[in-house]
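User: Could you write out the 3D structure of this protein bound to UFG? I've included everything you need below.
Assistant: Certainly. Input first, then the structure.
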Amino acid sequence: MAKQILVTGGAGYIGSHTVVELQNAGFDVVVVDDLSNSSIEVLDNIAKITDKRPVFEQFNLADRNLTASFFKKYPNIEAIIHFAAFKAVGESVQKPLEYYRNNLVSLMNLLEEMKSNDVKHMVFSSSCTVYGQPDVLPVTEQTPRKPAESPYGNTKAICEDMMRDYCATNSSINCIALRYFNPIGAHPTALIGELPVGVPGNLVPFVTQTAAGIREVLSIFGDDYDTPDGTAIRDYINVVDLSKAHVVAIERLLNGKQKSNYEFFNIGTGNGLSVMELVQTFIKVTGVNLKYKVVGRRAGDIEKIWADTTYGCNELGWKAEKTVEETLASAWAWEKNVRGIK
Ligand code: UFG
C-alpha cells in the first residue's frame, strides 16, 4: 500500500491549503482533525479542487489512546505535518491550561507514536512569535528567541524545545519546525480560506468582514509606533506559498537532505508591510470603500517584525512568489464566496 502523509489539523486554514498542495504533488493524505475550529465541508471543497477527498479521522490528538489506535489503524504513515493546535493569542491568556494541555500533549503523543510505529519524519507548525520583538531586523534563524508574550506563544517555544530534545536522543526521528510569519489570503479557487469563528482577531479576516458589511469599521491598533507611518509592521505570507513550503520540507526529510535531525526555518516573504499599507493596498486592489479608524495600541502587540528568508529559501529551494496584491484579492474573493456576495 502507498505511503501516506498524516496532516493533523488538515481541515483548518493552513492545513487545508497544505492538503491541496500535497495531493497536487502526488502524496496520499490522511487528515486528523477534531473539527473544534473547522468544518467537514472543508474536505469536500478540497476534493473539488484536487478531485480527491483525503482520508479523514475525527479526534483530538491530546487523547493518547485514540492517537495510539490511529497509528495501529494506519500503519503506512510515513511522515506527519502537525498543524492541530489552539491558536488564539487572547484566548490563551484566559485559558492557559487548555492551551498547554492541547498543544503540548498532542505533540508528546505524536512523538511517542512516531517512535513506537517507526514514523521518522515530522514538519511542525511554529511561529515567528518565538522571536518576540527582535532587537535587530530582519530576523534570521540565528536571532535569539525571546520569552513568550502569551501562553499560546509559549506553547510554540516549548514544542520547539520538545522536538529539539527528543531528536537529540532519538537519532532516527527527524523534525523540521517552520516559523511562519503572518499567513494571509486564500486558495485561488476561493473554495477554501480562513473562516474564523466569531469576531476575527487577525487583521485580514477583519478587513474582509468589514468590506463585506459584517463589521462596521476596522480598528487600526495604534499609529504611534516607531515605523514610517506609525502603524505596526508584519511580514504577510500567502497561504498557498506557505503550504508549498510544507511540501518541500516533507520532501527534504523523505529524501534525507536534512543537515541535522532537528531544523527550523523562517517562512515569510522578507518584506515588511505596515497595517496602513495593507489597508490601502486592499482598497486599491478591491475598489471597496473600507471604513477604518485609528484607535489605541492592542496590548501585547509587537511593533515590527519581518523575516530574513535567505537561509530557509536556500536550504529548502523555496520562496514566496505571490504578491500582496493578489493575496489580498484572494482573501476578498474567498470572503465574497462565503457570504454569497457577487
Ligand atoms: N490589527 C489591527 N486591527 C485588527 C487586527 C489586527 O490593526 O482588527 C493589527 C495588529 O495590531 C498587528 C497587525 O494588525 O499590528 C497584525 O495583527 P494580527 O492579529 O493579524 O497578527 P499578529 O501579528 O498579531 O499575530 C500573528 C498570529 C499569531 C502569531 C503572531 C506571530 O495571529 O498566531 O502573528 O507574531 F503568534
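The pocket of UFG is lined by residues 87, 89, 127-129, 153, 182, 201-203, 206, 218-221, 232, 234, 275, 298, 301 (CB under 6 Å).
User: Perfect, thank you.
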